[in-house]
Amino acid sequence: MLQEQYPNRLSFLRKLRHLSQKQMNALIGLKDRTMISKYERGQVLPSLPVESKMEIVFHADGPDIFPQEFKKWNNEVEQVKETKLKHKQI
User: Fold this and answer.
1) Splitting the chain (90 residues) into consecutive groups of 10 residues, what average pLDDT does each group show?
2) Is 12 helix (H, G, I), strand (E, B) or coil?
3) Alpha-helix runs per DSSP H in 1-90
4) Is residue 90 part of a domain?
5) What is the distance between the alpha carbons of residues 43 and 85, in angstroms, rounded to a whole number?
6) Nearest Cα residue to 51 out of 4, 3, 9
7) Which pTM does this prediction carry?
8) CB-based contacts of 72, cutoff 8 Å, min separation 6
């Protein structure tokens, strides 16, 4: 249940640095003031430039900010390695 409630660590990291969502928007350069909330709730994944700016703001790597997504992507890559690369299908 905790994972469903918190799909990433954005809100935690933002609050740890005493930043409001409005301040985050300004730091990252977002025009839509609702995007930080959408990212925090896991409704939308940020683009690579936005995610990179988050890494800079939080002094954290992508897997530290979005652990569930990176775990999912890692599993996908490992599955391809195990199945297709092992049998040289690509």
Assistant:
1) 66 96 95 92 94 96 92 93 75
2) helix
3) 2-5, 10-16, 21-28, 35-40, 48-58, 62-65, 67-80
4) no
5) 33
6) 9
7) 0.80
8) none
